[in-house]
Amino acid sequence: xxxxxxxxxxxxxxxxxxxxxxxxxxxxxxxxxxxxxxxxxxxxxxxxxxxxxxxxxxxxxxxxxxxxxxxxxxxxxxxxxxxxxxxxxxxxxxxxxxxxxxxxxxxxxxxxxxxxxxxxxxxxxxxxxxxxxxxxxxxxxxxxxxxxxxxxxxxxxxxxxxxxxxxx
Length: 168
Fold this sequence. Notes:
Blueprint: E1 25-27, H1 32-41, H2 45-53, E2 58-61, H3 63-68, E3 69-72, E4 83-88, E5 99-104, E6 110-115, E7 120-124, E8 129-134, E9 137-143, E10 146-149, H4 160-166
Parallel strand pairs: 1-2, 2-10, 3-4
Antiparallel strand pairs: 4-7, 5-6, 8-9, 9-10
């Protein structure tokens, strides 16, 4: 999706990959506990946290939102903890609880949203702002250079969230 918008994309899989030049970070969906474990084992947590804290734009989707969250309900192990939200993991249930809808997103209007074993944001801290809700649950928030979504914007053809991220 980002390449479609003209961005150069690289993958960060090991600490040595951090030596490459990059000016934005996407934390994708997947299994957040596995991602946190790998980021820690690869000694990437602190260098990336520092980049985020210093203003590097970051987009966290689904598990990426969980990695950014300051708090995760029922979890003692945290990721970056840079986005002032509390997240509830698997809030919409397991695989069978996956769904698709359209909802308003900030000033972008209605956008398509695909949720897969998705979390939601149980609480938005005073440093963050709500960007989108679905059925009364917060599903996207922003704090300065950070955008976190409970859904997967990359699974739909709509590029507005990715463009918003590139414009940060």
